[in-house]
Design a protein that fits this description.
elongated; 8 helices; 5-stranded parallel sheet; 44% helix; alpha/beta; 5 strands; 225 residues
Length: 225
């Protein structure tokens, strides 16, 4: 802590960095208080838009989803990008050298390979897909997971568990609300990170972004770049 001597501080001072002008009648405490006030204001401003620059992976069923899982992802991406986040979408992989995709005609072809028993070819394609999707999970700063209990899923659970084990913020939206979530999920993650709808998720992420509360820092990490 810095100790100020009033006699030393009194006198004609120029305008300080913090905007205070030190005159003969100015108390040292007044200057210090203004400095502290400005410092707090600066820190508060720096905390705004906390989500800016963070990478978010969008995990959810694809194989058995009627729309290939594209709908909810396309709905969320504008909101996330408006916060300055970088979206990692397995339905629209952000790399130009991916050997295989997993939606649309490419998904139809893979389903046909399985139907025909051409498992080696299917395996080779899925190895490449799994590698990219799991890598995106690894590099993400947080993961959004969509769970619909009526849709069979495998890769989504793999990505969910990986995210939890890496202590990432793992935000799960459950179709029909958290009352429909698998019981096992309550044993491996904080139920406060389960949401009944995407609107509830957006509200939560908005509060995190605005630094409206102190999030669980055992999960969230905000670097001062």
């Amino acid at each position: 802590m810095l100790l100020f001597n009033r006699k030393v501080l009194k006198g004609d001072w120029p305008i300080l960095h913090y905007g205070a002008k030190m005159g003969k009648d100015t108390e040292a405490e007044d200057v210090v208080n203004e400095m502290v006030k400005e410092n707090k204001k600066s820190k508060a401003e720096n905390k705004q838009n906390r989500l800016k620059g963070l990478r978010v992976y969008l995990a959810g069923p694809i194989d058995h989803a009627q729309d290939d899982g594209v709908g909810w992802r396309d709905m969320m991406k504008p909101f996330l990008r408006n916060k300055g986040m970088l979206t990692l979408d397995p339905c629209d992989k952000p790399i130009n050298y991916a050997s295989y995709g997993e939606v649309g005609e490419e998904k139809t072809k893979m389903m046909e390979l399985k139907k025909l028993g051409r498992f080696y070819e299917l395996s080779e394609q899925m190895k490449a897909i799994c590698h990219v999707d799991l890598r995106m999970t690894d590099v993400a700063d947080c993961v959004i997971v969509y769970i619909n209990p009526e849709i069979p899923m495998c890769g989504t659970i793999h990505e969910l568990v990986n995210s939890l084990q890496q202590r990432k913020p793992t935000l799960v939206v459950v179709e029909g609300g958290k009352k429909n979530a698998p019981n096992w999920l309550f044993g491996i993650m904080d139920f406060n990170f389960m949401f009944d709808s995407f609107d509830d998720l957006k509200d939560f992420m908005g509060l995190v972004d605005e630094a409206a509360f102190s999030p669980d820092l055992t999960r969230w990490v905000f670097f001062d770049f």
